[in-house]
């Protein structure tokens, strides 16, 4: 693994993200109105995450680390790199249950689906009813001195 870099995706490279999703996460599809962050190893995109703005909040969605890089801290590093984005307005995510510890390390807290804003609650219900084992979470900025 070379030196990893994390940054917002340049618009010209947008088609690469949907190709990445097609190859590794077919349910994912990037939209041009989302903020898309990528992690790169050299010139190869190895991870991505999208932030969808909905009214006065944002939904962290479509996080992907390609299989060869999983379990090596890339997901943690990508979330750490997006901290300013995450803290720019209230941030929720629907984590696959096996990924809850990853998001907890990034200061997301499990919440009840009844605590979701109404415009996210209906989306969460639809996803859950389609058979996805998801856990609603919200970002909680750590207190000073904690990381």
From TrEMBL:
PROSITE patterns: GNAT. Residues 1-142 form the N-acetyltransferase domain. Keywords: Transferase. GO terms for molecular function: acyltransferase activity, transferring groups other than amino-acyl groups. InterPro entries: Acyl_CoA_acyltransferase (IPR016181), GNAT_dom (IPR000182). It comes from the Bacteria. This is N-acetyltransferase. It comes from Photobacterium swingsii.
